[in-house]
Amino acid sequence: MTREIRLNAFDMNCVGHIQQGLWTHPRDQSHRYRELRYWTDYARRLEKGLFDGIFLADIVGVNDVYGKSPAAALKGAVQVPVNDPALLVPAMAAVTDHLSFGITANLTYEQPYLFARRMSTLDHLTGGRIGWNIVTGYLESAARAIGMQTLAAHDDRYDLAEEYMQAVYRLWEGSWADDAVIADKAAGIYADPSKVRKIRHDGKQYQFDAIHLCEPSAQRTPVLYQAGSSTRGRQFAADHAECVFVNGQKIEGVRAIVDDIRARAIATGRQADEVKIFVGATIVTGRTDREAREKFEDYRAHASSEGALVHAAASLGIDFSAFDLDEPIDTGKSSAIVSNVEAMTRSAGPQWTKRKLLEQMVLGSRQPPMVGSAEEIADRLCDWMDKADVDGFNLSRTVVPECFDDVIDLVIPILQERGRFKTAYRPGTLREKLFGTPRLPQSHASARYRL
Questions:
Q1: Per-residue model confidence as pLDDT tens digits over 222-246
Q2: Distance CA 308, CA 358 (A)
Q3: What is the DSSP string of 289-349?
Q4: Alpha carbon distance 251, 318 (integer Å)
Q5: Domain count of the fold of the chain
Q6: Residue 135 β-bridge partners
Q7: Which of 134-138, 178-182, 242-246 bottoms out in mean pLDDT, i.e. has the lowest?
Q8: Distance of alpha carbon 429 from alpha carbon 437, whole angstroms
Q9: Smallest Cα–Cα separation from 279: which of 352, 387, 373?
Q10: What is the spatial distance between Cα 390 and Cα 384, in angstroms, rounded to a whole number?
Q11: Angle 219-225-230 (CA atoms, 0-180°, nearest 5)?
Q12: Per residue in 359-401, pLDDT tens?
C-alpha cells in the first residue's frame, strides 16, 4: 500500500528562523510575528491546504557563538527576538478543526510538574491536537540565562531527559484514572477522590509529591517529537519518540539513520510503524522549472551569508568568525547539536572550510533547497519517501506566506492525483490521525506508569 506524504510547516515565533535574511524580501510577512492575526490567518491557510500541522521551533538563549557576541544575531534577526511558541496555539486552534501543533519546549530549564500542566491544558484546548518536541538545549547562553555556570555535556543532557520523561509520564498517565471525573451535578461530585492518585517522584534531578493538576485530556501524553540523530539521540528516539525529525542530507545517509532508529525501536519491544520519520526540507517551486529558478534567484538575492554563519555557529558550537575562508576548521568536541556536526561532516567532508560551508548556504541556511517545477518537486518528495523510508517532511519557510501557498496550490494537487496525499482530514486527535489510537500503545515506555 502506497503511503501518503505528511507535511508540516516548520516555523518559529520570530522574524528569522532557518533561511536567514529572507525576512528582508519585500513580499515576506514574517515581521508580523507579533500580531495574533498573522498566526490565525497562517493556521487557516495551512488547514485549507490540508497540511498535517505547524511545528514551532524555539530557543531560550541567543545565538552568540559567532564573534562571541549576540550583535550579529540581533542585527540580522537570527532567531532573536523570539516569543513563546505555546501562547500561539490556543488562538490557532480556535480557528481550525484539524491542524495539529507541535511546540518545542526545553526540559532542561523547567520543572516537570508545571510543564505537565501546560501540555495537558493545551491538549484540552486543542481537542487533542498538541505535540511536544523534546529538546535539551544546546546554547551556552541559555544555560547562563537560567543561572547555570555552563551547559551540561551532550550525553549528560540525555541522562536528565530520561528522568524528566519518567516524571511527566507518571503525571500524565498515572495520576487520574480514566473514569475519575464524574461531573454529577445532582450529587455535587465532580471527581472521585479514590480514583486520583498522588504521584511521588524522588529522582536524582527532580522530586515532587503531588497529584497532576489536570484531569485526563484527549491524548493524556502529547504526541512526542524528537530531533536528535546522534547515537545517543537515536536511542532516546527509539525509547520515547513517536515522530523523529532528521536533517535533509543525502537520501542514503537519511535511510541509514531511519533504519537504525526503527531497529532500535523494535529492540525495545515497539513496532517499526510506531515511529514516524520527518525530513527537513525547503521548497522553491513554480508552474515551470524556469519560473521556479527565477523565484529562487529572487530569494537568493535576499539571503544573508552572515546570518547563516551566525545560526550555524550556534548549532554547531564553532565560532566561524575566527576562521579565514579557506582555513581548515577543527570541530573539536562540540557540546552543541552533535548530529548537526556529524551531518555537516558527511556533507562537506572531514576537512571543513568556511568557503565550503558558504557554498551550501544559498538561501541563508545549511539546508540546500529543492528547486524545480511542481511536477519535479512532487517527484523528489515521492523519491525521498520511497528510498529513505520516511513518512513526511517539515517544510521550513522561505518567503511567507507565498512559499506555503505554492506548495498548497501547485504541489499538493499533483500528489493527490498520484494518491500520495490526502484529499480530506481524518477525524480524531493528532495521535489518532498519525497512528489510529488516542493513547500511546502498551509497547511504549509510558505504559508502565499508567494507573
A1: 999 998 778 899 999 999 999 999 9
A2: 8
A3: HHHHHHHHHHHHTT--HHHHHHHHHHHHT--GGGS-TTS-B---S-SS-HHHHHHHHHHH-
A4: 26
A5: 1
A6: 106
A7: 134-138
A8: 8
A9: 387
A10: 7
A11: 150
A12: 889 999 988 899 999 999 999 999 999 999 999 999 999 999 9
At 13, which CATH number? Answer: 3.20.20.30
Q: What is the pTM of this model?
A: 0.94
pLDDT recorded at residue 348: 52
Give pLDDT tens digits for 45-90. Answer: 999 999 999 999 999 999 999 999 999 999 999 999 999 999 999 9
Residues in contact with 319: Cβ distance below 8 Å, sequence separation at least 6, in sequence order: 65, 66, 67, 68, 313
Half-sphere exposure at residue 434, Cβ-oriented, CA atoms within 13 angstroms: 36
Residue 276 maps to a domain: yes
**pLDDT tier at 337, thresholds 50, 70, 90:** very low
What is the domain extent for residue 401?
6-182+193-304+366-440
What's the confidence (pLDDT) of residue 350?
58
Cα–Cα distances in angstroms (integers) from residue 338 to residues 227, 233, 279, 281, 404, in the given order: 11, 9, 17, 20, 30
Q: How far apart are CA 87 and CA 33, in angstroms?
A: 12
- Find the Cα–Cα–Cα–Cα dihedral 372, 22, 365, 76, rounded to 10°: 170
Q: What secondary structure does DSSP assign to 215-262, as a single string?
A: ---SSSSPEEEE---SHHHHHHHHHH-SEEEE----HHHHHHHHHHHH
Domain assignment of residue 236, yes or no: yes
Cell numbers placing 451: 494507573
Q: Which residue has the cell 495551512?
A: 46
Measured distance CA(213)–CA(190) in Å, rounded: 14
Confirm whether 166 is domain-assigned: yes
96 in a structural domain: yes
Report the SS3 class of residue 195: helix
Q: What is the number of other CB atoms lying within 10 angstroms of the CB of residue 270?
A: 19
- Residues 6 or more apart whose CB falls under 8 angstroms from that of 324 comprise 354
- Residue 352: which H helix or E strand, with range? none
The answer to whether 237 touches 444, Cβ cutoff 8 Å, is no
What is the per-residue DSSP string for 78-97?
A: BS-SB--SGGGHHHHHHT-S
Spatial distance between the Cα atoms of 48 and 99, rounded to a whole number of angstroms? 9
